[in-house]
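Action item from last week, closing it out:
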Amino acid sequence: VTKSGYGKRIVYHMDPRPLHRVFTGLARRYERDLLPLEPELDLSAGETPLIMSGRPYRSLERLLELLDEPYYTGFTVLMMTDGDVLARAPGSARDHQAWPGGYLDHVREVMNTAVVLYEALGSMRWLPFDLPDALAVLFAHDLEKPWAYEEKDGSWFLRAEFRDREFAHAFRVRKLASCGVRLPESLERAM
């Protein structure tokens, strides 16, 4: 077990890559997978330490690095090909992250929250999924939003066709397929 000092506290950090797998219904964790926290923190990449928890607030790029294939490559391709649309999109029309760029802020927020919750809950009980799968679902869960909203006279409006949940879901699936990602049925349902 490796540890590192973070202020006056000692922080243990488990690499969130799926190095533990479920075998015969049990989550196996290995001490060799514990890594120090500080080397992951890169202030130049827009990461900031969360003072209360001692956990880094990761950039979207760093969060994508936690994904397995084909998600890492597919989502990186999506960010490169549609990055301008994603970067300008609001997170919603008038609620959470309702500003230009709010969509990516929302995605980063929920993915960072998932890392913290996965580590906390995973230390207390077995989880029926691994962190990369959860992060893939969270990255894709609102993937239609950058194309669903249009701006008129300084306000954002949801396009009529995206009010249909089935249409929005089918759009997400098509957008994922366009970057080479096909989620297994269990993850597609979670999305």
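Closing note: The beta strands are 4-6, 9-11, 13-14, 22-23, 26-27, 34-35, 48-49, 56-57, 149-152, 155-158.
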